[in-house]
Batch of 2 targets.
Target 1
Amino acid sequence: MKRLLEVDNLHFSFKTYGGEVKAVRGVTFYVDEGEVLGIVGESGCGKSVTAQCIMRLNPEPPGYFKQGSIKYKGTEITSLSKREIKKIRGSEIGMIFQDPMTSLNPTMKIGKQIEESVMNNMSVSRSEAKTRAVEMLKLVGISDAEKRYTQYPHEFSGGMKQRAMIAIAMACNPSLLIADEPTTSLDVTIEAQILDLMKELQLKFNTSIIMITHDLGVIASLCHRIIVMYGGMVVEQGDLHEIFYNPKHPYTWGLLKSVPTLNMDKKEQLIPIDGTPPDLFSPPIGCPFAARCEYAMEICYEQLPPEYEITVKHSTMCWLQHPNAPEVIWQETNEGAL
Amino acid sequence: MNAEKPYIEVKNLRKHFKLSRKEILKAVDDVSFIINKGETVGLVGESGCGKSTTGRCLVKLYEPTDGKIFFEGKDMNLFEKKDKTKFCKKVQMIFQNPYSSLNPRMTISEIIGEGIKEHNSISGKEVKEQVYGLLELVGLNKEHANRFPHEFSGGQRQRIGIARALSVKPEFIVCDEPISALDVSIQAQVVNMLLKFQRDMDLTYLFIAHDLSMVKYVSDRIAVMYLGSIVEYTDSGELYKNPIHPYTKALLSSIPIADPKLQESRKRIIIEGDVPSPVNPPDCCKFVDRCSYSKAICKESRPVLKEVSNQHFAACHLY
């Protein structure tokens, strides 16, 4: 499988008059052709900023690349000019945002919004663009496509707006789709439809997808591989089964334990992760999770742990993996780690 | 069956909003259920099903268009002034959006203290003491009292909302999607807190949510709503084990499960289409257009909520 995207030791910060906000602090991951990578983590962990870095969507200034590289099909993204990045957006990389209500232009007909993407990125005539737009609406399951093409976003329901967003993002057949919490604002039955659609399109066009979400259920239904982010860093990454059934980082354990499963009783307590995420103005020098970690040792507060390889496709950034560290075993029950 | 009067009884509740001369939005369309003291009833359904509107009718934020709500056996429509005052003390609400439900121009101390002052004639110092006590109870501290809402995170704001609801020592709290806007790990903290308070203070909850796994975790009984009506209503364990109504079945099978092996092996029922509009709804089963089991009768008359098996009610012509 060809490597489509390589993010290497990415550091991205924002200059604010309160100081430097270190949003992304050394993130490394990759995406291969045809695979779905899930990025999971809570608000403020840096997942959206990381994704937006890939398309250079973060405002620069106040944002700036401190260190590291992002290579898309071999091209270095961080040093591209505005004109060059525009060529990649839409045609190579598409993006679906969280809130379709605010991500669609309310004064523009849906059809025109799809056409706009096509015209900007493909050299086709206006009528060819229109045909393509109607095709895309049909592809994403919007019935009455010819009529819907002439309608405005407010005439679409939430689920339909999200489908329209997918149509716009896929219109130029990009190789990589970045979906930032695409179903968070949707109802469960509509969410199921959208996830199914994404799965279908992904298989049909062999598109790679980066799926950003805090919903572990969504991850489980769509992703091949997962990276878990916390405090601006990747604390664990691995393939789907490794992360769900053999997680190694205490934060991942915490996430898995705090989600109720359908066969739980009230008697089994939900085990939350106490505390709150770190301050990104002055992030801790050691492991970002140490302050909330049950298993934190002295070294965790003093030094950033290195990345330890568990298997070829599974690694974690945690001092518990050091040969001299005490053994802590994760159990699949809600009793958590022993 | 309990011979005692239930704590709260909702009978044929209707709440309609007139949009124009010909358009009536039937947000709540003939809803009946009871809540017993000390229990948690979950009200579940997707956007627009009428669950929040039902909750608001229960706290008297809305006046019903028709039907009755009985609180401790008394018809709420017939409340006199003193009944209303007592009611406001006993019944409170926790709102969904922690960003818009706290007055941005009031300090935390003022927000939490407002209810205490309203219902008690005690000194300012005593109010402050109670406010500090409540802040500690929800895991915040004294230092937070003089700050403003914008200085807090979503999870913290939700805790402030809970402290406010508890400030008047209520008996019954309507929790309207109290955790939807929060991160997964914070959701667990807030839910655990709500459950602890229920045990310690003998509270009764109406828990409104669309997160079906969380609702099951907190509720004793659950009512599933669709387009203004209750389509199924039973014990929470029973609902998930033996769902009856086609909508409930589809709803349960749509929840993404945080377990890849289970997710892959389960049978999924994907409902086609969008939720229809609650404006001028048809006089037949409201789910008929999206139901894969519909028969002729489903298009002709509206099914009535009836007991299909022991204490398990469903509104469906198939049963």
Target 2
Amino acid sequence: MLTRNESLWKRISKNFYIWLVFFFLYLPIAVVFIYSFNTSKMNILFEGFTTRWYGSMLHNQVLMEAFQNSLVVCFVSTLVSTVIGTLGAVAIHRYKFPGKGFLENMLYIPVVIPEVVLGISLLSVYTAASIPLSLNTVIYAHITFCIPFVLITVKARLAGLDGALEEAAMDLGARPFTAFYRVTLPLLTPGIAAGALLSITLSLDDVIVSFFTSGPDSQTLPLQIFAMVRTGVTPEVNALCTLIMLVTILLIIGNTIRQVRHLKKGK
Amino acid sequence: MLKKINIFKWFTILPVYLWMLLFILIPNLYIFAMSFMKRGIYGGVEWGFSIKNYIGIFHGMYMSIFFQSMLLAFETTVICLLIAYPFTMFIMNKSKIFQTIAIATVTIPFMISSLVRLFAWITLLRTNGVINTLLLHLHLIHQPLSILYTNGAVILGMVYMLLPFMILPIYTSMEKIDGGLIEAAKDLGARDLNVISNILIPLTIPGIFAGSILVFIPSLGYFFVSDMLGGSQTILIGSLIRDEFLTARNWPFGAALSIFLIILTLVVLRIYSKLGGKMDDLGV
Amino acid sequence: MNSVITLEKVNKVYGNHHVVHNLSLRVNEGEFLTLLGPSGCGKTTTLRMIAGFEVPTDGAIYLNDQRVNEVPPYKRKVNTVFQNYELFPHLTVAANVAFGLKMKRVKRSEIKDRVAKMLSLVQLEGYGDRKPSQLSGGQKQRVAIARSLINQPKVLLLDEPLSALDLKLRKQMQFELKRLQRKLDFTFIYVTHDQEEAMTMSDRVAVMHNGNIEQIGHPRDIYERPQTRFVSDFIGESNFFSGEFDKNVDDQWLIRSKNGFFTVSANPAFETDKKFYASVRPENILLSEAPVDGFSISGTVIDNVFIGGFTRTIVRLEDNTEIKKTTYSKSGILPVDQKVYIHWSKEDAVIVDTEPLEK
């Protein structure tokens, strides 16, 4: 949609708008970054520059423990939801089975229903079954809302693949699982990667569901930060989040480069 | 199609099916059942059928909270749309590479702790925060603006959190439009505004709908935004439910509120489907 | 000759759609057999049942005297060359070709050897490291063939493998496929809707229509002795003449039709109290300015079209039926508007259908 006859004024104002939106989105992130160097621990006004929080945060046991919890939850739930979600995508894409429509509806619930409901429903069931709240209960909850997102992402990619390729593999002697493993799965990798990335993001940042399904010993990082909001978010938190942000940005840049390269190849 | 050996087929179906049954169906059925029960003395659940909870919902106070929450969600959705649509339109004029980078740029904030970003807004918006300090310094205002702890701040926070969810579906929708259509319209004499209203908007309705759903529904439940940025008057449906569960310990009532919220969501989704929306578009 | 594949009264039904109808077939070892027919005749479905991708609703399929109805494709010693090649895009040419061997857990050194041999057999030496996306249509086709042949299948199934190629390349590939089949002495079952292709390459052709085989035999037989109206019309071109038996004349029958009398060879296989349909190929039609003994069909020349190496003459009969004649020489073309009489040599008319007489 490249229109070359646009007046200069129009083009300037359009660009200005685009950058304004970017500015809006990144302003708080800049604040997070800058305030991670704040000498004032209260972190309300910026007083001076220091990098000591990047070191001291490692000694903040409460913070580090919460961070570790988040990582564990994220890792396990991404792993499990990616496997179950990928297999589920194959199931729905390919097969007819009793209750398929019902399953598809169930999968949409975590996506569209407000997270509060997901949280309290799980909390209620955990309580009724006398399951104590722990990191495990958080993990189960995270897997539950990650699966649909992985499944939808992989299913979209699956739709673009040629179904006859697996037939060709079987014709050449591959059993169904081998055909899937050697032909479909390699071709599905971009979709699975995208789904996993989505899952990591959702899990790492989850507040509401974790809020209801975690116990006092299993606070995740967002919950810890949430608790700190009343007293003030210290620069240590800013430092930790800045680091997480950098890693996330690197991952996304990596993925974007892959996408851009793919586009360039297509030309 | 090929008839495959059952083992593999069920290997793919069972994990997801069983997990959903266990963690979605059963819990939701349970809270549905619980919504008809009574509150136990010590805050637990007492068995016994009663629709008192549902009657209680229609009490003035709760209804006004529901309406306020929906109004807030609606305003958030509209503002997101007004910001996102031109943004997407403008980046469509640029190269594919720019578009890909732009979308990635928009998506990155979503991956950084939302709480910390929201707290940054507190830093920016408070009476002695960055924005007020700057405006005072530039003599644009004489007294600090109290933006924080108002409904406005909550809307700002929610727009900030949910903007990517509006941009992505609209972008997906716009991407699918054949550029040749725009040129054909212009060839026939359509001015920019005509092109937008007669071609662009009708063809991107699926994206607009999907984005609206993805913004509206979460806005009803994002209690941490209203907790952090809102005043005591700003109560979302989500905050209500949280309070009933953790403060008032009236779980059956909380369950009834949740069911009510679910029904609300289903009604909105039904309207979405009826107007032509597809469920798959919601899996951004 | 051994029958390497036998189909016995095979039926395939999808919902209300009866795609393959009581089909029986014996495929001889080492032969090049083609299933020929228009789209929808059931030829691809039949092939897929032999491969194992579809299960017959009814009937039996035997591979080397073993019943294989429900045996999955990966257990059959049969390989398929697909219409769209179905090369694995993420694997190199060599890895594609080696796939079947890898499934059988053949030793890596042996695989390397056999792949190299196979690639040179299909004239793709040195292409081993390329990816399918880097190949042309013809090259992809050869990789698909190599990938199947390397497994030394009892039978190779080919599902319209050349339909995506341009004419010249197609002709070239037809020749190569035939050469390969002869050299390796495998059994090929080929599916196509292109009759020229079928006639050129096959040892036997099975003409299919509405889910069944109407006629099977050597290409020449099919062409010169079609047994049904469909076959005579589908293969090459036909002029149809119909009428009732009038009388015997030596070893010929005189037939009375709406347009006049004509003669066919007496055929003891048929009862004479029927309405007969005879087919005469355009190249066998003879035109004369005066009537010939045993024939009284006349018409007017309405067009002479020169097409490359031959002339197509169209004659319109009294009842507006159009008869096509093909002449390969430049002489003897009768002018337009000329009244002509139609006749032929007695062995050139084939009875392809009969109907009971209307009483």
